[in-house]
TrEMBL record:
Keyword Transmembrane annotated: yes
Sorted UniProt keywords: Membrane, Transmembrane, Transmembrane helix
Entry's transmembrane regions: 41-60, 80-105
Protein name: DUF4260 domain-containing protein
Short name of one Pfam family: DUF4260
InterPro entries: DUF4260 (IPR025356)
Length: 145
């Protein structure tokens, strides 16, 4: 039963699928709301990857990089900025929607919050080299594979 719920240090099975579906929902809602702002999709495309600039903090060390990445890849930031946009600075809303779409996209494709132990370990499971190694280990450990 535990293999259904947890794989390689991250959410697998149905919990993992639900988290990815949640990412899809966030991405779709953010894009629909952005469309309703009437702003250019060029702005959206140009700013979509800005949260990934947090990778630069890895130059200061793994702890700083993990902290910066995780702070820019949760729903908390876009929600807070969206509230600012709805209450005091309307221009902030479009940036919040782009940021939320980015977070949704990352979750949809399997990128989760980073573990301090390794860049390749996330709350959704391994990514990159760690994911390839985990797949290879599972392939080798299956009899008759």
């Amino acid at each position: 039963m535990s293999a259904i719920l947890q794989t390689e240090g991250g959410a697998g099975g149905w919990p993992g699928r639900l988290l990815r579906l949640e990412g899809l929902a966030l991405l779709v809602v953010a894009c629909v709301l952005y469309h309703r702002t009437g702003l250019s999709w060029w702005w959206f495309a140009g700013l979509f990857l800005v949260p990934d600039l947090s990778f630069l903090a890895y130059g200061l060390g793994r702890g700083a990089g993990t902290l910066a990445y995780n702070l820019t890849h949760t729903e908390v930031g876009p929600v807070a900025l969206g509230l600012v946009g709805l209450t005091v600075a309307p221009a902030a809303l479009s940036f919040a929607l782009i940021w939320a779409a980015h977070v949704g996209w990352d979750r949809l494709v399997g990128y989760g919050l980073k573990s301090a132990s390794s860049f390749d370990h996330t709350h959704l499971g391994p990514v990159g080299k760690a994911a390839r190694a985990a797949r290879e280990t599972r392939r080798i450990s299956r009899p008759g594979a």
